[in-house]
Amino acid sequence: MIKRMLVMLAATAMVLTALGFIKFKQVQEAIAQGAAYRPPPEAVTTIVTKQERWPETLSAIGSVTAVQGVMVSADLPGIVDRIEFESGGAVSEGDVLVRLDTRQEQAQLAAAEAARDLARLNFDRLQGVVNQSAVSRMDYDRAAADQKQTEARVAEIQAIIARKTICAPFPGILGIRQVNLGQYLSGGSPIVSLQKLDPIYVDFSLPQQFVGRVRIGGSIRFESADLRGTRFNGQITAVNSVVDENTRNVQIQATTANPRGRLRPGMFVETQVLLGTANSVIALPAPAISYAPYGDSVFVVADLKDPGGQSFRGVRQQFVKLGPSRGDQVAVLSGLKPGEEVVTSGVFKLRNGIAVSVNNNVQPSNDKTPKPEDR
User: Fold this and answer.
1) Which of the residues 95, 106, 261, 367 has an alpha carbon 20 to 30 A from that of 335?
2) What's the pTM?
3) CB 190 within 8 Å of CB 98
4) Burial readout 232-265 (b: 16 or more C-beta within 10 A, e: otherwise)
5) Would you say 153 and 115 are in contact if contact means Cβ atoms under 8 Å apart?
6) What is the pLDDT of residues 47-61, one digit of tens each?
7) Is residue 13 assigned to a domain?
8) How many domains, the chain?
9) Same domain, residue pair 215 and 232
10) pLDDT tens-digit map of 164-194
């Protein structure tokens, strides 16, 4: 009985040992297959890097302001008698905008002119006889003073009437009318905005450490978010003589032509000051850059080897130092060399050492001056 039990135990142990050995071999084969497995290549697009010369610039946020711009207001109180302009219209210097009611002043003017004429007649009459001692010198002086006083009164009323005819002080574009016919206006009441739009100013600020690199007559270029695809050029015409104590910035003013009136006062613009020098950079499409808190990088396509020594086409991650952007392009200042093949799309699915398959039939946008529809 005991012998039979020992034989059964020995047979069971042999079976278990054989099964364990077989399973061990299966696990070893699975591990080997897993180590040798290579995922299928990821499809990407690439570009071959080349050196370019980019003008050195200083970027700033600015706003458009009118060379001349005022809110035309009433000089004297009165009732609006006539409105002789249309909102948004163009006017020349001296064009009449609004006439206030001057009926009372016209009546006062008629009375003043009559008094002036009478004073002039009296003066002329006395002037002919004063030298003959037919009239006293006091009466003659009084007549002369009356004549001057009445003439001054006429001139005063004429000036009041003229001031109630409100004209454009310079040529420009009108805004929206702020008054209505028959409305009473007090002194200083706004009537309409008037802006001279050509030429036009662009105001922006730069940190004080850059002021030494800015010169009067220097060139700028700028774009408006509302006029994408249109690049404007101008010249620096003024640099403020003081530094803002709160921001340590200096205000810069540039002037640009605006013949079509596309730029309007108050518009936000992105400005670049051209410093006249150029940097050597490698320009890449923006999708080629992998941004991360620990550093920006790109993936360079190269010939790599797997653990078995087999060559394959893969990527290596390369950290780079970025410079300014221009349209769809980003400047790489260091970390890449001309002639390297860099992945331009599909970056998000890559990791260091992964195999790739290059297909450049469709490339991402890489235009330094893209049109609005491209954005």
Assistant:
1) 367
2) 0.61
3) no
4) bebebbeeeeeeeeeeebbbbbbbbebeeeebeb
5) yes
6) 888 888 877 778 888
7) no
8) 4
9) yes
10) 888 998 898 898 998 899 889 888 889 999 9
